[in-house]
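Illustration 12: DNA polymerase V.
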Amino acid sequence: MKKLDVFALVDCNNFYVSCERVFNPHLQGKPVIVLSNNDGCAVARSNEAKALGVGMGIAAFKIADLIKEHDIFVYSSNYSLYGDMSNRVMSTLASFTPNIEFYSIDEAFLDLSDINEKHRKAFCQNIRDTVLKWTGIPVSIGIASSKTLAKIANRIAKKSVKASGFLDLTHSPYLDHALERTSVEDIWGVGRKYSRYLINHGILNALQLRDAPTYLVRKKMGICGTKMQTELRGHSCFPLEINPPAKKNISVSRSFKQGVTAIDDLKEALATFVSIGARKLRKEQSVAKLMLVFITTGRFATRYDFQSQIISLPVATNNTPELIKHACCGVERILKRGFI
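Figure caption equivalent — predicted structure in token form:
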């Protein structure tokens, strides 16, 4: 009998705001927003700011009166800080399991298939407590038998007072209720275009999408749509990608046949990987502003370790020598911190 896949999505709560609160504890319980580059739009909001009606992506000038009336704390985005805090969170998560997918700056999927069902809640609570203690960042965790359902579980875990930051939908009698209360546009992978199509066909929530005729979904959404339906039915179609996220990124990584610890050997390999990435950048007529360098021990090492360094480039570039220079600086910083 095939073992049930169990995915946990760990998501940092209001990540940019939480980062600011780590270094400014007086912001706890206060309305806070973080603005995009050039202080344009709100890209992160505390729960208190959300309660005041501050919408995601709203231009700052449109809520100037609201900011003044309610003494909302406003911060310019600090991506170097957020990158460093993300590294701390992800390194902490990697200490619990090597089976981890770094999905975005504030999200990661974990494979909990080997954790006994009776112990999952305690295991996840330990993760939440440890991340908060070591980094100061609060996280919510959603568990399910597919990534799509784990996303839904996490979303409810964040918003539901009763769930209080944790929800397990693997064998939940409330699964249908959870799907019914999830609007179709809030399902992972359903964009604006697809949501319009589905709504026009009377599919308004995740439960209706799960039970909809496959031909209707496939007609517009193709194989990705049918995989989404399968995931909503509790069967995994999207395995864990044990890599930094390739979403809107170019990711180049390799495993070595034998352990490599010499700095010169690491730099040589890194230069090769960066050259491949730079070539891809130029092919797509793109440039890079941020770079993530990461190192892990072998998955079967006695003690698993993961370390990464996010580098904010002074000028966006696709120049190979320039990228290699910054990447090598990144790996040196990792080794200075003490990588086993």
